Amino acid sequence: MLPQDGIALDITLWKWLCENLAEAACILEFGSGRGTTALTTRWQVTSVEHDEKWVGVAPDSEYIHAPIVENWYDHNKLQDLNRQEWDLILIDGPTLAIGRENLIPWAKKHPEVFSTLVVVDDHTLKGPKQIVSYFLQQGKQVVYENAGSHPWVVLK
């Protein structure tokens, strides 16, 4: 099943996920949106979201409302993320204006969370590009790169 037209999830990412991720796999998503609903039709999704208007937008996703504290999600709200094994991490938040690269200090403290596939959306932009560089320095490799109109990259 493909996501409906108008969904913010890039169709090439959807196809890649369908081909490479088992149904019912566990996805940790940083930044929820309209695409979250499509993700929940095939996978178990936990969404970390700072903006209350997006919390609950996908009824079948488990939400963690984590307001922005010191330029990234409130660390206290993320304490349990390292207690679950994730099949894929999708980094599409917080907004670029807040700065997704602020994930890096948290990732340094919690490398076990990122010991799986990591998708970085908008990876050609400054902040997400820094995230990709960090993970490459940690030994991850590019598995797939979509350089189209909606760029994203998969790291393993």
**Poorly predicted segments:** none
Radius of gyration: 14 Å
What is the fold-level CATH name, i.e. the topology of the domain at 1-82 and 104-120 and 146-151?
Rossmann fold
Strand tally is: 9
Q: What percentage of amino acids are in beta strands?
A: 15-25%
The spatial strand order of the largest sheet comes to 3-2-1-6-7-9-8
Helix fraction?
10-25%
Order of helices and strands: HEHEEEEEHEHEE
Shape designation:
globular
Mean pLDDT score, rounded? 93
Class by alpha and beta content: alpha/beta
Named at the architecture level, the CATH assignment of the domain at 1-82 and 104-120 and 146-151 is: 3-Layer(aba) Sandwich
Give the termini separation: 26 Å
Put simply, the count of helices is: 4
Largest sheet: 7 strands, mixed
Give a short synopsis of this structure.
The protein has a domain at 1-82 and 104-120 and 146-151: Rossmann fold (3-Layer(aba) Sandwich). Helix content is 22%, strand content 24%. It is built from four helices and nine strands, in the order H-E-H-E-E-E-E-E-H-E-H-E-E.
